[in-house]
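User: quick one, fold this
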Amino acid sequence: MEGKRMRIQSESQPQSVILLTKIKDFTRALLSDLTNRRSPLILIDRFRSYCTLPNSNCFCASDCPCGKEILTLSRKTHAHRLVVMLRVLLIVQKLLQENKHSSKRDIYYTYPSVFLGESFNLLNQSMVDQAINDICILMQCSRHNLNVVSAGNGYNMRSHSTLENALCCQNFLNNNNNNSLIFTFLHIIMTCSNVFNWLIMGWIRFSEGERIYDCISSPNTAHPVPVYVEEVQDIISVAHYILVVEKESVFQRLANDQFCNSNHCIVITGRGYPDIPTRRFLRLLVDNLRLPVYCLVDCDPYGFDILTTYRFGSMQMAYDTKHLRVPEIHWLGAFPSDSERYSVPKQCLLPLTAEDKRKVEAMLLRCYLQREVPQWRLQLTLILQRGIKFEIEALSVYALSFLSESYIPSKIEGKLMM
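Assistant:
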């Protein structure tokens, strides 16, 4: 049993209708196998955003699968994975039928006893993530086509309020009284903590559904990045470039310095590793505005990994890389050489840990670095050779406004980026 190669876009039918048909065909085929006493075989294409063979003619980051995974009921782990996938598929079917949206966290708390498995780990949502990815591959679609979004904040979710999200696991809680308070409060806290996870400011105006984001009227005021990116339209901008910053602290520093007043730009932060809406929204802006994009991250292995996530995509979402990656992005800093160029004090330079070194060594093997951005790979090698790392904020040790008034403008004007 394998997902049919059917275009998700159709002029004659809405996306939801096509997906509902695919879901029906998939479940009917599964049911037919079971009723005829045949063990179903589910073939799932596998994709990857990179490999560790830089000299090979690989298909990484392409639309071509690099292999198939076979799920069978004869293996216990596969059987449980299929149960989880069918549970998620049932929720997705209802979302599509009712034209509602839900987050993966909401889905997780709908059947926590199923999704927790045997380990009973409250914070483990990896099975739901895997099920959603498997469904996207089988149905040949993106995650947003399933009406599944990354965040579950009451501010922007239209299908459930925060209270309704917490009550969705009521049946489970009634049967697990010892854990009811833990689940309820954990869910509410985790839900509320996701409000405004991703931020944008600058010279841009757009709408998402009925809501208008008018950043231009106050360019240094933070707005949330839209969750329903497919509904974004009427994009207007007078910006000269887009600046992506790794950390919220740097974003707030730029906002406090009124950076966008003297620099006509758009500033976005994913607050660390960017989620799907942030990456999709950035991809949308680049496609529509055709502006140069620069990325500012810490000079450490994790900052570099975040940079590559924006440009090349992540391994987990490799099947949807073409909608998420931004190959146009340029690395603005911080470079290893910046510590000497801008006289960063020694007390701000931190030694690489053993874990840092292992991460760098693993990243150096990624095929796309040597093939597409060899200069990035040289800088990563330099980080390993020097054995030190530093944060973006270390560049502002002598003046709080150094990033806004000197570092970023001089880098862009002098084209000191990679």
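User: anything notable?
Assistant: Confidence is low (pLDDT under 50) at residues 3-11, 118-123, 152-196.
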